[in-house]
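Help: read this over?
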Amino acid sequence: MKTVTTLVELREQTDLLRATGTLALVPTMGALHKGHLTLMREARARADHVVASIFVNPRQFGQGEDLDAYPRQLARDSELLQAEGVSLLWAPAPAEVYPAGYATNISVAGVSDGLCGADRPGHFDGVATVVCKLFNQVRPDMAFFGEKDWQQLAVIRRMARDLDLTFPSVDAIHGVGIVREADGLAMSSRNAYLSPTQRSQAAALPQAMQAAIAAIAASTPAAEALAALRGKILAAGFDSVDYAELRDRDSLAPLDSDNGTARLFVAARIGGTRLIDNMPV
């Protein structure tokens, strides 16, 4: 596996790879876990070559968020990627991605409204901008993203459709299912922030979601089931629930009942850590 840090090097290496087969891109911010490695394996199964990016994107962090504290462990991550058969690691510095005088921003309306879009103003602008840049930099045949960030995936697909991106096309943007710990907690780089006590309490989040989904399936009104979900999360030791909502899985429009395409979205805070999750209803 080669590691490149400049755009000139990246284009040289991707041209070489593209000459001998298809190219898959897996964008990450590093601090890799089993969920990321599952993305690498899915990409490896579908493409001849895999390019992974590690870039902690400052434009998707709001004021007071954890940009400075976000875990950075490039040496360890590089070893993991090498073991997964990744061909190329793109690990630029912020100044390489956003050079002096950079002034362009991409904003995706609709699917970015509500949920994390409401709680983190500007976050999805930063996501859309950096992913569009990554698509243009790498020019992959396909790209892979985790479904834990379902709203993010919807934003990226909408952006690719609206901007007529062909690398990859909307159909070549693949969502990969959530990888969970044994107790059900969705794997996340931010789980490393949790103390042992908080980590134990965090398992209540997916458990409360499963209970709410079962209640809705048993004809409990969605508003009642969601209120109970919030109560269970807070009773388990979480400090707050940012949102607990039913939304359409495709449009992300709010729902007040299960229409057959519903998905449950939750974000909650424990200590200084914000955890998100989603499940089909």
About this structure: DSSP finds ten helices and ten strands in the chain. The chain has two domains: 2-176, 189-280.
